[in-house]
């Protein structure tokens, strides 16, 4: 079993309420990860949601909406599994599962609920799986489950024929039911045991994003500091050389050229010490994370920063704009919607954060004008 120390505690809930331990959990997974609850197949229902007629970017969203609206229970839990361009949709009676768990009082923490079929090894073609209770007929295509049915008794010829007839565009099935297979738990199956985003709290996610942004900003600031020091040394050397040449060279044209070169170096240093879009991008990403938002695109230009959000973020944009403007990094924050592309763009200008250069550094240089917000 790969990375067994990361495996969470895994238990199985049967339809009669019995709770059995499938895996006690690895040393790290037992502490840091939420336990996984495998639901017996007879507690679940399965359906395939076809997305061929939908835009590729909207297929998962449509499958999630289908799982909510087409649920066969009044209060349903659901899970999705990828099946090529389509999605397998699993449902279970959430009220019944909660009642069975409440009677046990052995499960530690809120578990990640998933059907036991998703914890099986992937297959190909037709197969029948012997479960702890009952049998499950399955059809796999390109190692993705596209059909599943459960019955308490072993599949006979009539039951197998009924299952096969319901499958459209399927490969030829064997006339007789395949021999039932006893399958182990596949702990490397990402459908059941992948680290889910819901296992991280909002505070943990914000801390991780903020920490990463702070580290990136620190590295970028260190780079700028090194560049600024080198430029400062160049400015001092040019000032000294300019003074010497001025004393020995009376020509005004030559002195003017030296002043222009010195002015360029001072300007370069000022630009290096300003806060640019890249150094402020970490702060913007951290603010978005606090509102459970993540940009789908980011564009940093000379004095501006622009990022793209999903259209659904429009309900949270007002407090996001307020926090961006109040952070001290940005001003002129402008959100814009694009109904054709179904996204939301936020464009802002980056505020200069460096203190003005000292008179000693700028002495002898021609004055330069800088735009202030």
From TrEMBL:
The lineage of its organism: Bacteria, Pseudomonadati, Pseudomonadota, Alphaproteobacteria, Caulobacterales. This is Uncharacterized protein. It comes from the Bacteria.
